[in-house]
């Protein structure tokens, strides 16, 4: 520049006239510039600094020399000052200008200090820069002498000639100078253009727009800073199509070879099959890749087993949309959420998080994509509620948030039993819905702070990006970061200018190129001095640990009457893997839905009963569940299973009843008298038993013999009693008749028997009395004197003895049998008789028991028959199978067949009607087979029923839960505590011994009891009736005697003898004996006669 300035006629020196300063061409310009070599060095040095370069040369050639420099430097905020005016000086600094732009402009936007800049360039590059700097100064200072006109231009105004010192001139042809400078510029510039391939999914609209904005901004701000760009749009749902599209684009990109092949791949795909195709391609081709695919460590399948070389240049950074779901995990852990329905919109991908999101967290959860229409959303929420999911999480934008909340409000999914958690990446949105009263836990990003001019510039960039801004900014920054890191690798020679690549057709799984590029270190170095548009990037040691760095703020938002009434900041979460949630307001701990479980039940008194009046459940199991809640706090809702069955396995392998509800996860707990069975334990879990072993047993109607006070008369039939009575009268009449007509009877032969002590005249009355008393142990008294009468008496005695003996024996047997007779005592007795019908309820556990036992007997029979009829057996083996008796029992087969013929009751009510022989079952005795607890309760509440036999097929009762449910261990611990405290025994006493429904039935007579008063009380009644009859007889006798005495007096006493009135005549008969020839009255007592006469009432 100095040389050009000294030789040009348009320099400041050649136009300066000290004597005519007013008319000089540059009289008004500042001090001269580029007059010396020192000034040229200073110009080039200062032009790359923020300082002013100073004044420019005045001559035309120097001005042209720096024209390029001035134009190129105008895109930077620095002032480059004045440049040489001549053309040769401008060309001399061209290389320096180009180098300055390519080396400094991009780093000027990202690097903060000179130290970082020095790190980005190697010593070899510094040496090249210095050499080019010296060459530029040399060419600018000495330039090319203009030989087109040998005459020097003269100054416009004459002035005294001034002798100028001779200076050495560098004589270089102008064409040679241009060729040299062009070669150097191209050689340096070719190494600085990264070639780029961008792979993105068609549905990633935010990513596509952000990458396009980043490339556009880069080209506008730094022209020539980026080489060729190939963009590939793939269908992420089709791996084959995606891989074919990528391979075709790649083959086209590397076809020309040389320095035009791609240096870097930006993989902006999200997930699914297309993303897998992209990751498999980059790993196979060995191309440096910066990926924004979703997934943590190991989620990108084809990047799991990378070698050490590949781990350095295949880099994945988790986008905000992939990191935000981790906040759900922290919320579930921090707030002890037991169930969660996780919904997400199109901005999120959750396929890879189905298993990992809540791994090792005791939260039962469902992850689904949110439906597009509100009616479908309502149905989706209803299904979640059917699965007992009451905590709802949403990852979405403003539109999906409003739609979900409106659907929840319309379904009345509000209040303490429901929890709403909304997470969004839109920093400006707030939840809005037509809600009356809803509290929402709302999380959104913390917006960045704009504080300086550079951030102000980034704020302007943010205005051009789509929402959510944090996602758009991530893709925007990631694009610039990848290009800058690759440019750094090119500048430092860490990445070759002409890399070697292979295409898809030549790949054979063993020829992946080795790169030796530490691309991760380049990314980390560049990002340190990069001002992010929104959020920084946190770098880890390996893929799955690199992610966007941002903070989520937790708000408690209360919406009342469609308006937000409060927004209370309650915590924060620094985005990261396994980073805990920081709670600043304990109120959010109560925002979750209360722990509530769905209980499905079958009514079975006294275990599970329902009060229709109050609409509440009660019973042994409800008390048990309330006792468990003392150890495991929770709430519950009970509903009865629709088919009213415990659950049985059908032929097609499906379950019914409560079993089906647990398997389909429509219930959390199955509660009732639920038997633990082997086939059930394969699909659900049971707690430890809460009740003793309970088997099957038989119930029948209690035998109630008819009682009667005169039951002793029923020992003999009425005909027998009539015959006995007829025999009594006939015998009495015969005895009277024989005694009257027999000459040897007493009344016909008094003199003969006058000396006997026993003199009995068998008149009709005496005959009746004799026959009656003869049947008693006292006997009939004096027998007749005549032989015929005695024969009649003897015959009567024999008859009476037989009758009395028979009656006595039959009376005892009759009274005893009526108390002892129970037709069935065991199941064996039931199977051997055909009079009494028996059956369990259809499809009940008892039904299944007999059905299976019959099937087993049939199978055993088939096995035995096959063995017996097997022709391959030898004679000895067949002889061993030859038995006379049937070796396989068919008891249950016959019983089940008898049950089928009798018919299975539909329910317990029908079974009771059949037992009591009501309605159409009046003529059929029936025995009902059911589990012992049911039978025991029926007997306790019905005095006309009795349990028969011992229990069989005994199994315990337990609470059933879903397979793998954490409730199993929690309930086990609680039940064991209750057992140790003997609480379960108290519950049994409450519902069995102290049950208000228990009937106080009369004790059933047993064999050791005596004859009851109901059966023998008639005897006492007979005595009472006899005494009463005797009293009436006495009264009659007295009356009859008095009436007869009065009649006799009237007949003896004359009317005139008043003094003799009322005197009875008495005949005194005294026997007369002859003593010494004289008649003497024996028993005569003169004193008695005097006494009688003195009374004056008797006549002799």
Automatic annotation (TrEMBL):
<feature type="domain" description="Ionotropic glutamate receptor L-glutamate and glycine-binding">
    <location>
        <begin position="606"/>
        <end position="664"/>
    </location>
</feature>
<feature type="transmembrane region" description="Helical">
    <location>
        <begin position="720"/>
        <end position="738"/>
    </location>
</feature>
<feature type="transmembrane region" description="Helical">
    <location>
        <begin position="172"/>
        <end position="193"/>
    </location>
</feature>
<comment type="similarity">
    <text>Belongs to the glutamate-gated ion channel (TC 1.A.10.1) family.</text>
</comment>
<dbReference type="GO" id="GO:0015276">
    <property type="term" value="F:ligand-gated monoatomic ion channel activity"/>
</dbReference>
<dbReference type="GO" id="GO:0038023">
    <property type="term" value="F:signaling receptor activity"/>
</dbReference>
<keyword id="KW-1003">Cell membrane</keyword>
<feature type="transmembrane region" description="Helical">
    <location>
        <begin position="1019"/>
        <end position="1041"/>
    </location>
</feature>
<dbReference type="InterPro" id="IPR028082">
    <property type="entry name" value="Peripla_BP_I"/>
</dbReference>
<dbReference type="Pfam" id="PF10613">
    <property type="entry name" value="Lig_chan-Glu_bd"/>
</dbReference>
<keyword id="KW-0813">Transport</keyword>
<dbReference type="InterPro" id="IPR015683">
    <property type="entry name" value="Ionotropic_Glu_rcpt"/>
</dbReference>
<keyword id="KW-0325">Glycoprotein</keyword>
<keyword id="KW-0812">Transmembrane</keyword>
<keyword id="KW-0675">Receptor</keyword>
<keyword id="KW-1015">Disulfide bond</keyword>
<feature type="binding site">
    <location>
        <position position="680"/>
    </location>
    <ligand>
        <name>L-glutamate</name>
    </ligand>
</feature>
<protein>
    <submittedName>
        <fullName>Glutamate receptor, ionotropic kainate 2</fullName>
    </submittedName>
</protein>
<feature type="domain" description="Ionotropic glutamate receptor C-terminal">
    <location>
        <begin position="596"/>
        <end position="994"/>
    </location>
</feature>
<feature type="site" description="Crucial to convey clamshell closure to channel opening">
    <location>
        <position position="824"/>
    </location>
</feature>
<feature type="transmembrane region" description="Helical">
    <location>
        <begin position="796"/>
        <end position="817"/>
    </location>
</feature>
<feature type="binding site">
    <location>
        <position position="931"/>
    </location>
    <ligand>
        <name>L-glutamate</name>
    </ligand>
</feature>
<dbReference type="InterPro" id="IPR019594">
    <property type="entry name" value="Glu/Gly-bd"/>
</dbReference>
<dbReference type="GO" id="GO:0005886">
    <property type="term" value="C:plasma membrane"/>
</dbReference>
<feature type="disulfide bond">
    <location>
        <begin position="943"/>
        <end position="1001"/>
    </location>
</feature>
<keyword id="KW-0472">Membrane</keyword>
<dbReference type="Pfam" id="PF00060">
    <property type="entry name" value="Lig_chan"/>
</dbReference>
<feature type="disulfide bond">
    <location>
        <begin position="247"/>
        <end position="504"/>
    </location>
</feature>
<keyword id="KW-0407">Ion channel</keyword>
<keyword id="KW-1071">Ligand-gated ion channel</keyword>
<dbReference type="InterPro" id="IPR001508">
    <property type="entry name" value="Iono_Glu_rcpt_met"/>
</dbReference>
<keyword id="KW-1133">Transmembrane helix</keyword>
<keyword id="KW-0406">Ion transport</keyword>
<dbReference type="InterPro" id="IPR001320">
    <property type="entry name" value="Iontro_rcpt_C"/>
</dbReference>
């Amino acid at each position: 520049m100095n040389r050009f300035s000294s030789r040009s006629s348009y320099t400041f020196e050649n136009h300066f006239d000290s004597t005519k300063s007013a008319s000089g061409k540059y009289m008004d310009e500042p001090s001269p510039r580029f007059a010396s070599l020192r000034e040229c060095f200073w110009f080039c040095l200062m032009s790359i600094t923020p300082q002013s370069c100073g004044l420019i040369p005045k001559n035309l050639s120097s001005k042209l020399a720096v024209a390029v420099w001035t134009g190129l430097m105008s895109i930077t905020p620095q002032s480059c000052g004045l440049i040489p005016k001549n053309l040769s000086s401008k060309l001399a600094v061209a290389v320096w200008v180009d180098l300055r732009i390519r080396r400094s402009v991009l780093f000027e936007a990202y690097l903060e200090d000179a130290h970082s800049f020095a790190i980005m360039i190697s010593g070899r590059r510094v040496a090249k820069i210095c050499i080019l700097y010296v060459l530029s100064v040399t060419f600018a200072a000495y330039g090319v002498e203009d030989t087109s006109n040998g005459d020097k231009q003269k100054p416009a105004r004459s002035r005294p000639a001034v002798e100028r010192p001779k200076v050495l001139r560098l004589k270089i042809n102008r064409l040679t100078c241009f060729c040299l400078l062009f070669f150097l510029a191209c050689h340096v510039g070719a190494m600085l253009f990264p070639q780029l391939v961008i792979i993105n999914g068609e549905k990633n609209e935010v990513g596509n727009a952000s990458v396009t904005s980043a490339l556009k901004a880069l080209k506008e701000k730094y022209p020539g800073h980026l080489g060729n760009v190939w963009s590939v749009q793939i269908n992420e749902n089709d791996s084959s199509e995606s891989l074919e599209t990528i391979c075709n684009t790649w083959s086209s990109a590397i076809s020309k070879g040389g320095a035009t092949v791609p240096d870097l791949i930006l993989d902006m795909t999200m997930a699914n099959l297309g993303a897998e195709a992209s990751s498999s391609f980059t790993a196979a081709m060995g191309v440096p890749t910066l990926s924004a695919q979703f997934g943590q460590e190991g989620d990108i399948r084809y990047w799991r087993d990378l070698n050490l070389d590949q781990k350095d240049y295949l880099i994945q950074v988790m986008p905000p949309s992939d990191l935000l779901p981790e906040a759900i995990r922290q919320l579930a852990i921090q707030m002890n959420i037991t169930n969660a329905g996780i919904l997400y919109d199109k901005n999120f991908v959750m396929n890879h998080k189905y298993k990992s999101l809540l791994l090792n967290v005791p939260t039962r959860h469902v992850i689904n994509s949110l439906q597009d229409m509100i009616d479908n959303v309502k149905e989706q929420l209803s299904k979640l509620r059917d699965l007992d999911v009451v905590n709802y999480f949403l990852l979405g934008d403003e539109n999906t948030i409003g739609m979900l909340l409106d659907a929840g409000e319309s379904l009345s999914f509000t209040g303490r039993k429901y929890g709403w958690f909304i997470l969004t990446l839109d920093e400006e949105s707030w939840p809005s819905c037509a809600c009356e009263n809803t509290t929402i836990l709302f999380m959104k990003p913390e917006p960045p702070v704009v504080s300086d001019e550079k951030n102000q510039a980034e704020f302007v960039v943010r205005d051009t990006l789509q929402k959510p801004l944090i996602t758009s900014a991530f893709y925007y920054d990631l694009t610039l970061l990848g290009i800058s890191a690759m440019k750094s690798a090119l500048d430092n020679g860490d990445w070759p200018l002409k890399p070697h690549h292979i295409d898809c057709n030549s790949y054979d799984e063993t020829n992946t190129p080795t790169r030796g590029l530490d691309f991760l270190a380049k990314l980390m170095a560049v990002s340190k001095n990069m001002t992010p548009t929104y959020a920084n990037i946190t770098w880890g040691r390996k893929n799955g640990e690199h992610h966007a760095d941002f903070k989520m703020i937790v708000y408690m938002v209360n919406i009342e009457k469609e308006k937000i009434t409060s927004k209370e900041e309650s915590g924060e979460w620094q985005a990261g893997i396994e980073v805990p949630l920081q709670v600043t307001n304990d109120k959010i701990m109560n925002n979750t839905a209360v722990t509530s479980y769905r209980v499905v039940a079958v009514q079975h008194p006294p275990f599970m009963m329902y009060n229709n009046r109050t609409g509440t459940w009660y019973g042994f199991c409800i008390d048990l569940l309330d006792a468990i809640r003392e150890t495991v706090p929770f709430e519950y809702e009970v509903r009865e299973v629709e088919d009213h069955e415990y659950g049985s396995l059908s032929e097609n392998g499906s379950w019914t009843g409560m079993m089906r509800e647990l398997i389909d996860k429509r219930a959390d707990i199955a509660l009732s008298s639920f038997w633990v069975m082997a086939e059930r334990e394969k699909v659900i879990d049971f707690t430890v038993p809460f009740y003793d072993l309970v088997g099957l047993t038989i119930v029948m109607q209690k035998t109630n013999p008819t009682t009667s006070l005169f039951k002793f008369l029923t020992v003999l039939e009425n005909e027998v009693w009539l015959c006995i009575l007829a025999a009594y009268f006939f015998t009495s009449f015969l005895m009277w008749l024989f005694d009257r007509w027999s000459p040897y009877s007493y009344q016909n032969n008094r003199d003969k028997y006058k000396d006997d002590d026993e003199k009995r005249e068998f008149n009709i009355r005496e005959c009746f009395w004799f026959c009656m008393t003869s049947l008693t142990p006292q006997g009939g008294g004096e027998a007749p004197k005549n032989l015929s009468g005695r024969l009649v008496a003897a015959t009567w005695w024999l008859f009476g003895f037989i009758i009395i003996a028979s009656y006595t024996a039959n009376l005892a047997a009759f009274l005893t049998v009526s108390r002892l007779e129970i037709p069935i005592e065991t199941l064996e007795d039931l199977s051997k008789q055909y009079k009494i019908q028996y059956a369990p309820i259809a499809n009940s556990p008892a039904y299944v028991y007999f059905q299976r036992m019959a099937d087993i007997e049939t199978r055993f029979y088939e096995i035995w028959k096959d063995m017996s009829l097997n022709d391959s057996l030898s004679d000895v083996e067949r002889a061993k199978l030859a038995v006379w008796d049937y070796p396989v029992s068919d008891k249950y087969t016959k019983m089940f067949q008898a049950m089928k013929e009798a018919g299975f009751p539909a329910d317990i009510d029908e079974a009771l009607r059949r037992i009591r022989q009501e309605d159409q079952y009046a003529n059929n005795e029936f025995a009902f087979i059911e589990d012992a607890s049911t039978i025991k309760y029926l007997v306790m509440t019905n005095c006309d029923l009795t349990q028969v036999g011992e229990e069989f097929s005994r199994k315990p009762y337990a609470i059933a839960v879903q397979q793998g449910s954490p409730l199993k261990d929690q309930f086990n611990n609680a039940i064991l505590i209750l057992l140790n405290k003997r609480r379960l025994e108290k519950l049994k006493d409450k519902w069995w011994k102290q049950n208000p429904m228990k009937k106080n039935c009369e004790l059933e007579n047993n064999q050791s009891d005596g004859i009851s008063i109901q059966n023998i009380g008639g005897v006492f009644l007979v005595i009472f009736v006899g005494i009463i009859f005797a009293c009436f007889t006495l009264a009659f006798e007295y009356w009859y005697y008095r009436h007869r005495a009065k009649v006799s007096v009237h007949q003896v006493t004359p009317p005139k003898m008043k003094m003799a009135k009322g005197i009875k005549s008495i005949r005194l008969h005294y026997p007369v004996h002859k003593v010494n020839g004289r008649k003497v009255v024996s028993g005569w007592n003169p004193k008695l006669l005097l006494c009688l006469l003195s009374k004056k009432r008797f006549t002799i």
